[in-house]
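Consider the following assembly input.
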Amino acid sequence: MRVLGVDPGLTRCGLGVVDGAGGRTVRCVAVDVVRTPADAPIAERLLAVGAVVEDWIERYRPDVVAIERVFSQHNVRTVMGTAQASGVVALLAARAGLPVAFHTPSEVKAAVTGEGRAGKEQVTTMVTRLLKLAEAPRPADAADALALAICHCWRAPMLDRMAQAQARSAELARAHKARVAAAAAKAAAAKAAGEAS
Amino acid sequence: MRVLGVDPGLTRCGLGVVDGAGGRTVRCVAVDVVRTPADAPIAERLLAVGAVVEDWIERYRPDVVAIERVFSQHNVRTVMGTAQASGVVALLAARAGLPVAFHTPSEVKAAVTGEGRAGKEQVTTMVTRLLKLAEAPRPADAADALALAICHCWRAPMLDRMAQAQARSAELARAHKARVAAAAAKAAAAKAAGEAS
């Protein structure tokens, strides 16, 4: 499974492509950071980020796009731009027919370091080690994008199993409800027949 | 000037097209609300909103797209979806070659009611009156989209004048700096010549 991980942003948007070879084995295919000037209009910045994401989807042909789920942080202005960028990435992935998955920062940190509140440096160190990179990816947004892709490689089988279990339990609940309704209808019909006779 | 106003959102996204005929005269061309199911994946919801926005751009050929600027509100989850939708709208407008403008909720309210903290009902009443509509547009998101478009019709000339004034003052500042630098260079040259002689 090939995953394009995106750490969305306007000032810096991290992109990382990782191949999951089954088990815990992961391989780095590409990593980069797109930057857009802070004084450019928002629409132009989104256009620039969108163009690179589309180019990467076409060039690396991922099976899925994993995006960091944005939370409201201290800086409201920054978080809005980040959310706008994440919307653009999700749209372009969906338009390319690719499934889109969101993972929270703590899910990503927990996946690669075993600790949901790990620091940026710890994430970078683990990403470098897991992907057997000669150098640590810089800036942190590049490492985050790779961490996100690794997280998706490892979480996807579990998420699939959870979705299947949920679908099965919904099916069982539906069948149970139908049996209850049928029994109630039979009882009502028997009662009506008793009263009529 | 024809303006497509968008009150971004995933559950309800308001769309309104308004023609500004100069002065305060405005005319309603179209208004609607796109809804997407709350239980659908984010990417699918963005895809649905994006498809309608593109259709409206093609169908109504606006000169500009005005989008409500999203602020962090009480419900963080909602505001993220709203910001993602606004990013998608801005991207699609920019890809269609259209300028994109953002207005804050209070700028919109102040433009149509004269009061930045006006209530939703007051905005709907003024929009209905200004556009001489037979019925009040419902739900509020539809009225908000029209209010946004009206706000842009009225603010655009002022924003243009401000941008021109800023460009002029930046040009004057550049010219002044150049004169100062030239004078300093001349003085330094004269001093060097004096020392050399």
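The first helix of chain A runs from residue 42 to 60. Ask yourself how this observation constrains the way the partners meet.
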